[in-house]
Amino acid sequence: MHIAGNIKKIPQTSGQGEAVMTVRNLYKSFGAHRVLIDFSLAINSGENVVVLGKSGSGKSVLIKCIIGLLKPDSGTIEVLGESIPELSDEALDEIRMKIGFLFQSNALYDSMTVRGNLEFPLRRHSITATQEEVDELVKSALEDVKLEHTIDMMPAELSGGMRKRIALARTLILKPAIILYDEPTTGLDPITSREIIELIKEVQQKYHSASLIISHDMNCVRMVADRVVMLIDGKNYKEGTYDELIQSSDPVIKAFFE
Amino acid sequence: MLRSQFWKNFLQETGEIARFTGRLFSQWFKPRYEIREFLRQCYIIGYKSLPLIALTTFIMGLVLTMQIRPFLVDYGVESQLPAMVGIAIIREIGPVITALIFAGKIGSSIGAELGSMKVTEQIDAMEVSGTNPFKYLVVTRVMAATFMLPLLVVLGDAVALYGTYLGVNMTGVTNFGFFWTKVFRNLSFGDVLPAFVKSFFFGFAVGIVGCYKGYYSKKGTEGVGQSANSAVVLSSVLIFIIDLIAVQVTDVLGLN
User: Fold this and answer.
1) Which end of chain A is less crowded, N or C, counting CB atoms within 10 A of the terminal residue's CB?
2) Which pTM does this prediction carry?
3) How far apart are CA A186 and CA B207, in angstroms?
């Protein structure tokens, strides 16, 4: 175990506000395969941090540990002052109301309409709202992603980009303080990717939420990141702004930016 | 070597299904109760299976009558046709055939649906949305399958007997009331109750196997297909095993 007594220095934040998420000395293995090795990270309120790494480097595992879908082998994850691995199921549900998660595959419920998909988190988190208020929240979330006309459509009727936007609308409907994006532009054409990136920036400006974005799309990194964390071989290899990293002479880092 | 691997896999899977079933029972009575989803599943699993069950059991009753008639005519006991086919349908053929059709339709559909939800991260999304996916997806489906199959068996038996009535009338004329009197006069409590009770177990087996195969579906679309397929195969085998056990239990209880 590497929890208390072995806490290493937490990487620097950009200093925009107080830390809303802190990951310390995180370890996660699957059998003999070590995915995260002593990984640490901190994010301030209103900050966009991109975790950059190759496919299979453990980026999605990191984000699933943060949201509590996976339990780390050791290390601490604090989100909005709560230690995620130690929370009960009820407390975890409570904190998840404040964390949005945009899945790589969008994870829209196939059996529900767009309206059903957006209402689902409201109803499941027992948000006490009248039907008019729920309708208003759904409408507002769809306006944010400019897809009001899709409200009664099924996910199967939507294009890849539209599905991503609806998934983002579902993420936004609870007005989370932190949004986790798992590969938000994967599988999209360059134009749609750009639209999604613009949308992420608009959302951040409108809601002042902190964002952790998992990506290997350099356009996304360049356009969105206040700070970039390089996740290589399960470790926080290097971090800095996009401009700092692009000027690095380290061949491992240069390989990403060339 | 190959044989030992087979037994290892068999025991491992049996253990995992047992653990999955244990988890199901530990969640079955705990709040929050997903009544709305349970009723939705009852509609999908029960109501939407009605036409298929009705069609297949009707044909089964008709064909069975047509196949048995010449044999009874040879022995001069043609008048016993309604009673004989009735007992066969109520005691054995009705529950088993309905359960097998149900396994093909519902087992595969649950396996594919949950498998697809698993590989597209919908189950994770549910958990993130403050929902216990096991309770919402598994408990509701297993409960719906357990309670809907007995109702479908009762309906299927009735339709099969109507098929029998038409079959009897194909070569002769039998009064509708007389036909039913013949059927029910030869039926006893010991014929109806065990058949009804075992259909709860059939439904439970179809639900739990479909959910288990789907919930632990391997990554990818191939895994979804395999989940659906193996859900049908395993639940069909379980139906026969449960039937075998039910006959023995019925015998021990003196209901045969």
Assistant:
1) C
2) 0.84
3) 36
Residues in chain A with CB shorter than 8 Å from the CB of B129 are: 96, 120-121, 124-125
One domain for residues A88 and A188: yes
How does DSSP classify residue B85?
Answer: H
Give the mutation candidate from B128, B140, B221 for the A interface (greatest A CB count, under 10 A).
B128
Q: Closest partner residue to A107 among B121, B130, B131, by Cβ?
A: B121
Residues A198, A87, single domain; the answer is yes
Q: How far apart are the C-alpha atoms of A16 and A18, rounded to whole Å? A: 7
CA distance A4 to A49: 26
Structural domain contains residue A201 = yes
Do B125 and A109 make contact, defined as CB atoms within 8 angstroms? yes
Of B113, B127, B130, which is closest to A125 when you measure between CB atoms? B130
ipTM score for this prediction: 0.83
Q: Does residue A103 belong to any structural domain of this protein?
A: no
Tell me the mean pLDDT in the region B112-139. Answer: 92
Residue carrying the six token digits 């975890």: A92
- B222 to chain A, any CB pair closer than 8 A? The answer is no
Question: B143-184, pLDDT tens digit by residue?
Answer: 999 999 999 999 999 999 999 999 988 877 788 888 889 888
Domain boundaries, position A191: 2-98+176-257
Instruction: Decide if B121 and A125 are in contact by the 8 Å CB cutoff.
Output: no
| CA–CA separation, B206 and B232 (whole Å) | 8
Whether residue B55 is predicted with pLDDT greater than 70 in this model: the reply is yes
Q: How far is B184 from chain A (nearest CA, A)?
A: 44
The answer as to whether A126 is a domain residue is yes
Same domain, A115 and A190: no
Residue of A nearest to B125 (CA): A107
Residues A93 and A216 in one domain: yes
With a cut of 50, say whether residue A11 has pLDDT above it.
no
With CB atoms and an 8 Å threshold, state whether B129 touches A125: yes
- The verdict on A86 and A194 lying in the same domain is yes
A141: phi then psi, degrees, rounded to nearest 5? -65, -40
The domain spans of chain B are: 34-252
Chain B environment of A180 (Cβ under 8 Å): none
Q: What is the pLDDT of residues A79-98, one digit of tens each?
A: 999 999 999 888 888 898 89
Element (H, E) at A115: helix A114-124
Distance from CA of B105 to the nearest CA of A (A): 18
Please tell me whether residues A188 and A165 are part of one structural domain. Answer: no
Question: What percent of chain B lies above the pLDDT cut of 70?
Answer: 98
- Number of C-beta neighbours around residue A205 at 10 A: 10
- Look at residues A147, A174, A201 and tell me which one is the last residue of a structural domain: A174
First to last CA, chain B: 44
- How many residues comprise chain A? 258
Which among B121, B124, B130 has CB closest to A121?
B130
Q: Is A28 helix (H, G, I), strand (E, B) or coil?
A: strand
Whether residue A71 lies within 8 A of chain B, CB to CB, comes out as no
